[in-house]
Design a protein that fits this description.
Number of domains: 1
Structural class: mainly alpha
Radius of gyration: 19 Å
Strand content: under 5%
Number of strands: 0
Number of helices: 13
Shape: globular
Length: about 290
Amino acid sequence: MALRAIAIMVVAMALLALSDAFIKLSGQRAPMGQIMFLLSTGGTLLFLAMARMRGLTVWSKEFWHPMVVVRNGFEIIGAIGLIVGITHVPLSIFAAIMQVAPLITILGAALFLGEKVGWRRWAAVLVGLTGMLIVIRPLGASFSGWELFAVMGVSGLAGRDLVTRLAPAHIPALTMSAWGFASTIPVGLGVYMFETMPLTAEPIALLHILGAVLFTAFGYLAVTAAMRMAPVSIVAPFRYTRLLFTTSLGVMFFAERPDNYTLFGAALVLAAGIYSFLREAQMARAVRA
């Protein structure tokens, strides 16, 4: 069962990497506001349909629960950062920045939720953030500024995950995901108001956006299935295969050539993230014992 869960998690990361690639492709032909609006609408409809199929509640007064509202706010921040970042930043750099999310979550949990974090995990967070800075190189000649949107996106996702812990536990994950996607629909329209690129009806652009919606939805379902089939400590480290998949897609389809700094920084992020997962699993086993 564990091997099957690992295989499903690896497939899920491949699907999400393909979603990244399709978003980047669509950004070459469509304005970001249109991409965000269609992604949000498509994702909302898919999650609502899946919730309905499982007999889950898709609307309740809990939508206005303060923690749900804050969670949706972080979802909006993350969506804007990710769409803008992935459109303008090479996939290899974007992928490395994205893998910092679990480390930022640990940092936020310690600072804002009062969770105890030992020196080993603090060291892992520091190493991971250092790796991200090596990838971005804010003082280097290759720094464009668009990388900050990717950082904004990953920070938004980390904030969303933190606040999810404070949201009412009885709200199903699918329902909460549908609400999060729905909250970004009007934001897509707002972003378009500040753009000069006209709306597009090109079939190839719409096909790319459709591919992003489908791969995102199926990737999400695969992640959920894998996490339910085996312990988190076994499955979660394989989330980092997304870094390999996304970087490979950048090389194959966008002619990207990651330099040594990018590869070294990504390796630091990868090592720090995997270590933090293993350390958390060790601590959890000790508590159970």
